[in-house]
Amino acid sequence: TQLLEQSPQFLSIQEGENLTVYCNSSSVFSSLQWYRQEPGEGPVLLVTVVTGGEVKKLKRLTFQFGDARKDSSLHITAAQPGDTGLYLCAGVDPGTTSGTYKYIFGTGTRLKVLA
Amino acid sequence: EPEVTQTPSHQVTQMGQEVILRCVPISNHLYFYWYRQILGQKVEFLVSFYNNEISEKSEIFDDQFSVERPDGSNFTLKIRSTKLEDSAMYFCASRTGTNQPQHFGDGTRLSIL
Fold first, then answer.
1. What are the chain A neighbours of B91 within 8 Å (beta carbons)?
2. Could you give the 3-state DSSP secondary structure of residue A89?
3. Which chain A residues touch B40 with a CB distance below 8 Å?
4. How far is CA B112 from CA B18, B87, B89, in A?
5. Measured between beta carbons, which residues in chain A are less than 8 angstroms from residue B45?
6. What is the pLDDT of residues B28-76, one digit of tens each?
7. pLDDT tens digits for A75-108?
8. From the centroid of its chain, how far is CA B64?
9. Which residue in chain B has the smallest CA separation from A40?
10. Contacts of A71 (CB under 8 A, 6+ apart)
11. Contact B49/B110 with Cβ under 8 angstroms?
12. Which of B45, B48, B107 is facing A42, going by the closest CB pair?
C-alpha cells in the first residue's frame, strides 16, 4: 500500500492568517480528493483534482495538484475559526487491480483556528 | 441533497459478541465501501463492494468480517466475534461510477467492552 503523507500533522493559527497543507507520495495518483472531517462526523468532500498542475478554488481554499500527480496542496487564505477540522487527502491506491477503486487516505492535518 | 446514512450512531458490545453495522447508501450509487478509523488514527480501507460481491478487501478484513447487501437499499458490515481492537469509528461510503468521488456517512462508533 502506497502512503499519502500529510504535513504538518497539527497546525494552530490565529484567525486571519494564511496556511498551506501538503499531501505527498512517491507514487503517481490518477486523482486526489481533499476531505474535511469534524469530530463525530464522516469526511466531507471538498474537491477532486485530476489533471497534473490543476488548480481549483473553493472560496478561500485553493487546491493544487502537482505536475507529476504525486502531490497536492491546500492553501487557506485568511483562515476563520469555522475552518477548524481534520483535513484529509485521499486517492485511489495505485495498486488497485479492480475497477472499484480502493481508496487510501493521508495521515491527516488537524487544523485549529483561534479567534 | 441525498446522503449516506448509518445506524446506529453508537454501538456498545461485549467482546466476543456479533455486531451488525448498517448503512443506506445514496440510491443511485453502485459502489459501496466500509472504512474504519481508530481514535486518533487515519481512515483505513476495509472493503469495497460492487455488483453484489466483494471487489477488494484489506488485510484488516479477515474471516471475522463480512458484508452484505440484503436488499436494494441496505449495505451491512458484520463482525462475527468482536475483539477489543475492533473499537473504532466505522464509515460507510458510496459512489456512482468511474472517477466519481465517494460520499461518506457520519459513521458508527463501535465500542467493545
1. 42-43
2. strand
3. none
4. 11, 5, 11
5. 93, 102-105
6. 899 999 999 998 888 999 999 998 999 889 999 999 999 999 887 899 9
7. 999 999 999 999 999 988 777 766 667 788 998 9
8. 14
9. B106
10. A22, A23, A24, A25, A65
11. no
12. B107
What's the maximum distance between 2 C-alpha atoms anywhere in chain A? 46
Q: Do A42 and B102 touch (CB under 8 A)?
A: no
Q: What share of chain A is helix, strand, coil (3-state, %, to 5)?
A: 5, 50, 45
* Tens of pLDDT, residues A3-57: 899 999 999 999 999 999 999 999 999 889 999 998 888 899 999 999 999 999 9
Is B43's Cβ below 8 Å from some Cβ in A? yes
Angle (nearest 5°) at CA A107 between A49 and A36: 55
